[in-house]
């Protein structure tokens, strides 16, 4: 009871107590010193509020830094998974905080912000020093330094920019406080070390380590770490090449700060100070060797078409999205294709005799090195050089790296093409030329071919493009002749015609007349077709023989017999092109690309199953998620944890059946004969089953070869960009097929030797190649002009007529014998007399 009474008494007295407090405050406020003290205490808060209203209101939230994703290059891997190409406008590699070595972090803290881990975003003593420096330099034109913490630098990098003003510094301070409240110290340092610009187009310390030392950050020494930490203040002023002494002094200052702060021992300091800068001139873009070339340019175009080039295009853009691209680029096959095609172009050009002046010059009164840098070209040992001077029997030449050499007159003794003047006497100071060193080490002049060409290598089973070369050298122009040049395929189109004929009821043993063939076309009258070189017809011959010897008259007669509508439909089915139903189309008068023709023969080798050629297998975003893949087939139960005893899961076929598999195999089997007995016998001794078809177009303006093995096929053409005759000696079998031979000798090494696979239903029958009659067996050593071969037939087309031993032993007809001398000529040249062609 007493407690309750006491509580009531206390409650009654409370109002009196509050009144006493109010009265005491009122009495105190009447005193002047209290008012002054209150104003002094309130002034900082008022000033802060005013500053907030003027500078901080509307500043971005630091929360965006939690999800910040810097612009990263796109990396391309080859078929083995090795990075071989990067697409970037800035050198940049993003690392996690734990991946930065402690000595590198210590170097930047010593140089930029030694109290980083103890302040709250603003170093107030340093700020006062910066204010004094600013006031003392006001009006002098000099720029004040100091005062910015690493957190403030992060605010400058991401939000405020690099404007030199008091306003920017105040905004920086507000943002630094927000950043410190949002991110941990480790997160702030990670952003800073990944984003800071350090010169040589390098953003972040990982990219700078590559640019200055060609090393990864975990390979840097203490001295090298200090060198990088010396750069943020002014990468240009402390560039180790342009300002060596200044850079060395700044690096040693950073080392001194590291010693003063206890980050390194005095012994480590002495050892590091004694080391030279040892930077790499020009550095490296990154750890990727950047193979470049037509293949990678085609990949770049594909990616830009899908995702755009810059960050404004979306999060997966080529130059900022940080994509990882798995390509089908095979480095061995690509190098073999580049070398083979370039050597083929050089051989053809050399056969024309003399030296061709490329017509390129530089202004020697200006920086000739930078002008020469845009004219780099040539395979392997070839180098671009500029003639600096010429005296007596030699010329002084300069290279893009600043070195010089001597070109003796004996190294440029060939005549200038089209004139009797020697190449050496035609050289003038300022001229850009191609040179290479001979076995003795002296420089010799080289002629850059004017003729061009394209080559595509494709994997039969998947359609993956393993190699691509679109000309002599990409640096001479980005036009990719493998995918963009529309050329007449000539007799490489013949497999299209004869595969349609096989579906129309003909067989490889069907006799077709190799003789005059004319069609009425109204005014001015008849149009007559001819064989290559105007060779006379050989009379009735088998389809196989006609393909092997590439006879135009047999081809156009076949197309006329089955109807051109079937031929152009087959061209569409095989992806060669869409053409009008004119007879000349059957002889390769329609235009197409090397890539389409290569895919056509790949479809034949794949038993009529077509694939879409691809250079990219799949694409991952910066987080490793697959965002696109070429193979989109579903596979039920492929990821099942346990096997349930049912048949193993298999994804459906990626291919689409475009022509009958038996027809495709018959065509491949016939084209094997082109290599064994026909126009591509230069490939016969490569030691593996090969098929193919040569081609030479009117003029001849283009020479072709398409074909390959069961695993890999290739397509090649050579010709001038502005089509003109290459010379009567130019034929697919003598110029294009040797390019494939050189390629195969390198690319096919170690590849299993696999025969071409016949589909179910095919029957192999012994046939007299000359008459098409069925034989009773194979007679070794028989006349090769009347050889008995095993021919592929569909079940319903197996021939019933037979040939006796006596008939097989009989000499071939006189018409056939007269043509024997021309059997291996590339009969692809159509001589037309106006009209359709």
From TrEMBL:
Cell wall biogenesis/degradation listed as a keyword: yes
Pathway participation: Cell wall biogenesis; peptidoglycan biosynthesis; Glycan biosynthesis
The reaction(s) this protein catalyses: [GlcNAc-(1->4)-Mur2Ac(oyl-L-Ala-gamma-D-Glu-L-Lys-D-Ala-D-Ala)](n)-di-trans,octa-cis-undecaprenyl diphosphate + beta-D-GlcNAc-(1->4)-Mur2Ac(oyl-L-Ala-gamma-D-Glu-L-Lys-D-Ala-D-Ala)-di-trans,octa-cis-undecaprenyl diphosphate = [GlcNAc-(1->4)-Mur2Ac(oyl-L-Ala-gamma-D-Glu-L-Lys-D-Ala-D-Ala)](n+1)-di-trans,octa-cis-undecaprenyl diphosphate + di-trans,octa-cis-undecaprenyl diphosphate + H(+); Preferential cleavage: (Ac)2-L-Lys-D-Ala-|-D-Ala. Also transpeptidation of peptidyl-alanyl moieties that are N-acyl substituents of D-alanine
Regions crossing the membrane: 36-55
GO cellular component, one term: outer membrane-bounded periplasmic space
Keywords, in A-Z order: Antibiotic resistance, Carboxypeptidase, Cell inner membrane, Cell membrane, Cell shape, Cell wall biogenesis/degradation, Glycosyltransferase, Hydrolase, Membrane, Multifunctional enzyme, Peptidoglycan synthesis, Protease, Signal-anchor, Transferase, Transmembrane, Transmembrane helix
InterPro entries, sorted: Beta-lactam/transpept-like, Glyco_trans_51, Glycosyltr_51/Transpeptidase, Lysozyme-like_dom_sf, PBP_transglycosylase, PCB_OB, PCN-bd_Tpept
Entry protein name: Penicillin-binding protein 1A
Species this protein is from: Allosphingosinicella ginsenosidimutans
């Amino acid at each position: 009871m007493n407690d309750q009474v006491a509580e009531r008494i206390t409650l009654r007295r409370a109002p009196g107590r509050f009144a006493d407090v109010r009265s005491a405050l009122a009495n105190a406020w009447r005193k002047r010193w209290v008012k002054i003290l209150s104003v002094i205490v309130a002034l900082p808060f008022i000033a802060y509020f005013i500053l907030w209203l003027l500078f901080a209101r509307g500043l971005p939230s630091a929360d965006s830094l939690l999800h910040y994703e810097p612009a990263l290059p796109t990396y391309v891997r080859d078929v083995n998974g090795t990075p071989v190409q990067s697409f970037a406008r800035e050198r940049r590699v993003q690392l996690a905080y734990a991946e930065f070595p402690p000595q590198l972090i210590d170097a930047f803290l010593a140089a930029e912000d030694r109290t980083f881990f103890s302040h709250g975003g603003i170093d107030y003593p340093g700020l006062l020093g910066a204010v004094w420096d600013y006031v003392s330099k006001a009006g002098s034109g000099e720029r004040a330094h100091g005062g910015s913490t690493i957190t403030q630098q992060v605010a400058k990098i991401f939000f405020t920019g690099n404007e030199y003003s008091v306003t920017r510094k105040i905004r920086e301070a507000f943002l630094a406080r927000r950043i410190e409240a949002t991110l941990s110290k480790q997160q702030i340092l990670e952003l800073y070390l990944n984003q800071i610009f350090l010169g040589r187009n390098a953003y972040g310390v990982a990219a700078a380590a590559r640019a200055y030392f060609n090393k990864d950050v975990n390979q840097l020494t203490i001295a090298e770490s200090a060198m990088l930490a010396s750069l943020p203040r002014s990468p240009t002023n402390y560039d180790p090449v342009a300002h060596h002494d200044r850079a060395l002094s700044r690096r040693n200052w950073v080392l001194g700060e590291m010693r003063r702060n206890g980050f390194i021992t005095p012994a480590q300091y002495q050892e590091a100070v004694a080391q030279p800068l040892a930077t790499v001139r020009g550095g490296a873009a990154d750890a990727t060797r950047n193979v470049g070339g037509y293949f990678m340019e085609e990949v770049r175009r594909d990616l830009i078409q899908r995702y755009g080039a810059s960050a404004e295009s979306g999060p997966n853009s080529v130059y900022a999205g940080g994509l990882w691209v798995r390509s089908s680029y095979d480095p061995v096959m690509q190098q073999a294709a580049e070398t083979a095609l370039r050597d083929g172009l050089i051989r053809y050009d050399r056969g024309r005799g003399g030296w061709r002046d490329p017509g390129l010059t530089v202004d020697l009164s200006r920086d000739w090195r930078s002008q020469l840098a845009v004219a780099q070209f040539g395979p392997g040992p070839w180098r671009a050089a500029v003639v600096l001077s010429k005296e007596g029997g030699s010329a002084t030449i300069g290279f893009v790296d600043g070195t010089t050499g001597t070109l003796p007159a004996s190294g440029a003794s060939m005549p200038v093409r089209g004139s009797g003047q020697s190449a050496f006497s035609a050289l003038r100071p300022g001229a850009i030329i191609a040179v290479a060193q001979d076995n003795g080490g002296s420089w010799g002049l080289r002629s850059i071919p004017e003729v061009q060409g394209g080559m595509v290598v494709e994997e039969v089973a998947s359609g993956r493009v393993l190699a691509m070369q679109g000309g002599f050298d990409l640096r001479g122009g980005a036009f990719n002749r493998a995918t963009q040049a529309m050329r007449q395929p000539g007799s490489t189109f013949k497999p299209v015609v004869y595969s349609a004929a096989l579906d129309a009821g003909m067989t490889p043993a069907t006799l077709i007349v190799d003789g005059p063939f004319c069609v009425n076309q109204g005014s001015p009258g008849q149009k007559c077709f001819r064989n290559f070189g105007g060779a006379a017809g050989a009379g009735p011959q088998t389809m196989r023989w006609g393909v092997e010897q590439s006879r135009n008259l047999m081809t156009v007669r076949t197309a006329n017999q089955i109807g051109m509508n079937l031929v152009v439909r087959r061209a569409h089915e095989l992806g060669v092109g869409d053409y009008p139903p004119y007879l000349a189309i059957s002889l390769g008068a329609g235009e197409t690309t090397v890539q389409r023709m290569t895919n056509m023969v790949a479809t034949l080798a794949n038993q009529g199953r077509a694939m879409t050629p691809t250079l990219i297998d799949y694409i991952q975003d910066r987080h490793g998620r697959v965002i696109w893949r070429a193979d989109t087939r579903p596979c039920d139960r492929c990821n099942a944890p346990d096997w349930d005893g049912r048949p193993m899961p298999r994804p459906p076929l990626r291919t689409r059946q475009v022509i009958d598999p038996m027809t495709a195999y018959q065509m491949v089997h016939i084209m094997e004969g082109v290599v064994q007995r026909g126009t591509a016998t230069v490939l016969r001794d490569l030691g593996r089953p090969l098929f193919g078809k040569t081609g030479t177009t009117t003029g001849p303006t283009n020479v072709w070869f398409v074909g390959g093995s069961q695993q890999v096929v290739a397509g090649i053409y050579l010709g001038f960009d502005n089509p003109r005759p290459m010379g009567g000696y130019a034929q697919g079998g003598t110029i294009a097929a040797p390019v494939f031979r050189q390629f195969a000798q390198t690319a096919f090494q170690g590849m299993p030797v696999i025969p071409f696979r016949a589909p179910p239903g095919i029957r192999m029958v012994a046939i007299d190649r000359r008459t098409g009659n069925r034989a009773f067996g194979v007679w070794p050593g028989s006349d090769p002009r009347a050889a008995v071969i095993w021919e592929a037939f569909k079940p319903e087309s197996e021939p019933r007529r037979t040939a006796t031993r006596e008939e097989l032993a009989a000499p071939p007809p006189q018409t056939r014998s007269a043509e024997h001398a021309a059997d291996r000529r590339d009969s692809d040249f159509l001589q037309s007399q106006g009209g359709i062609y």
